[in-house]
Specification:
heterodimer; A: about 250 residues; about 25% strand; B: about 220 residues; alpha/beta; Rossmann fold; about 25% helix; about 30% strand; globular
Chain lengths: ~250, ~220
């Protein structure tokens, strides 16, 4: 049976991990490679790098980071953040990323997703969808870390992205991100049930019980978390054991 | 021994190259080359054909390299050197593929490559049926094989595909994987093997699998 994927996400800025695991004895906790190796050993199912580097010159460092990671980790790696052109995608894939996540560039030009999927195949094109709740059952897409409204309705947007060739949707609730209050389950279920590509739930995880909700009630195919792993609140194996005990198909 | 990863322009071969580098660490005198040169293929003792993207694009890419198809036929079929196809590389071993229209394959293992049909799936309690089949799934061997050496209980490998290989002969199916229906995970025939999953993305078990392929003497 296909197992649910547990995906730790690392924020990378200027080639350094911003919120890294600080509880284990790493030689250099800011080194993305050290962190990636640790997660590889811990049995993470995939790894996600989110590049939050502001200046474009310094983004070049990312390619080197991705390259070193790909040479040392034998699991799928998704890289997102600031992906704006076909050339960006090509460089990331050649550096060793398996999937590339597109966010703002898709909102600016939806056809970019179509071009990317036609060029590189749907299997490596992830669209990051960042909705915020605007009324009871209406969610709209926000960009710039939830600051900029676009007025685009989230469910339709996810469906459109699927029809343009996105192979996966990375769904982050802007209301929940960073809260530790759990995923927005209503949103997760609405999107998961609307599209036939896998949906990765993200934003708000405070513990494994939130992941369980995301899977059972939100119908997510994978669950992503950042801070609970980084700050040592839980290990990958603790989370996996919890979910397995609750009856979720999990690779231990 | 020389092992060639056939590069016909289908995506990034870096992870496969580095995985094989890791897999051969305890083996002696193995040289891994990445090439689309038909002479390199002919000179090699083992051949690996990777592939990502669509069946039709991969086949087109393979045909566009002069002499490559003939070199593969000579090395793999006539000289019977061990061969491993991965993902679309495995699918290309079939007679015909139906992704983006009808494309003739290498016709090494009789069968068709067809879409995973959501309509055929049973209702799942956890989530609605998702295509592609993406993530870690457990393979189920049909028979014993040298490739499974050291790969015992937890046979989880990383899959990502929307089409699957429907073999004409059950005998060519070495392992299956359950995704609402039983799908072919590994094909085999004589000196040839093909995996629908990505051993190079499957952590320690994947490396073990690749190491077994490097040691395999059919």
């Amino acid at each position: 049976m296909l197992t649910i994927r547990i995906i730790p996400c690392l924020d990378v800025k200027n080639g350094r991990v911003v919120k890294g695991i600080n509880f284990i004895d790493l030689r250099d906790a800011g080194d993305p490679l050290e962190q990636a190796k640790f997660y590889d050993k811990s049995g993470a199912d995939e790894l996600c790098f989110l590049d939050i580097t502001a200046s474009s010159e310094r983004r070049e460092i990312l390619f080197d980071v991705v390259s070193k990671t790909a040479e040392n980790c034998f699991m799928p790696l998704t890289v997102g953040g600031g992906v704006r052109s076909i050339e960006d995608i090509r460089k990331l894939l050649l550096s060793g990323a398996d999937k590339v996540s597109i966010n703002t560039a898709a909102v600016d030009n939806p056809l970019f997703v179509k071009q990317a999927a036609e060029k590189f195949g749907s299997q490596c094109i992830v669209v990051a969808v960042d909705p915020k709740k605007v009324s009871a059952n209406r969610y709209e897409i926000f960009t710039h870390g939830g600051r900029k409204s676009t007025g685009i309705e989230a469910i339709q947007w996810a469906e459109q992205m699927e029809s343009y060739g996105a192979g996966e949707i990375l769904l982050t609730s802007m209301d929940r991100d960073g809260t530790n209050d759990g995923y927005d389950i209503n949103l997760t279920r609405l999107v998961s049930d609307a599209v036939s590509v896998p949906v990765v739930a993200s934003g708000g995880v405070g513990g494994p019980e939130h992941m369980l909700e995301g899977i059972m009630d939100g119908h997510a195919s994978a669950v992503l978390a950042a801070s609970i792993f980084h700050f040592g609140k839980y290990t990958i194996s603790e989370v996996k054991q919890y979910l397995k005990n609750a009856g979720v198909p999990i690779r231990l | 021994m020389q092992v060639v990863i056939v590069d016909f322009g289908s995506g990034n071969l870096k992870s496969l190259y580095t995985s094989l580098g890791k897999a051969k660490e305890d083996l002696k005198n193995i040289n891994i080359v990445v090439s689309n040169d038909s002479n390199d293929v002919k000179k090699s003792d083992k051949v690996i054909l990777p592939g990502v993207g669509t069946y039709s694009d991969c086949k087109k890419g393979l045909e566009s390299v002069k002499g490559l198809r003939d070199a593969l036929e000579e090395t793999v079929r006539r000289k019977s050197r061990p061969f491993l196809g991965i993902c679309v590389g495995m699918q290309l071993m079939s007679t015909v593929g139906l992704e983006n229209g009808k494309t003739n394959g290498l016709n090494w293992i009789p069968g068709q490559v067809v879409p995973i049909e959501p309509g055929l799936m049973k209702h799942e309690t956890l989530a609605k049926p998702k295509i592609p089949h993406m993530g870690w799934n457990q393979i189920c061997p049909n028979k014993s094989h040298f490739l499974f050496d050291g790969i015992t209980n937890e046979r989880y490998f990383y899959f990502v595909h929307s089409f699957h290989f429907l073999c004409d002969f059950e005998d060519n199916v070495l392992a299956t994987v359950d995704y609402h229906q039983s799908l072919v995970a590994i094909v085999e025939k004589e000196n040839m093997l093909g995996t629908q999953f990505h051993p190079e993305k499957s952590q320690l078990l994947g490396l073990k699998f690749l190491s077994n392929f490097l040691k395999w003497k059919p």
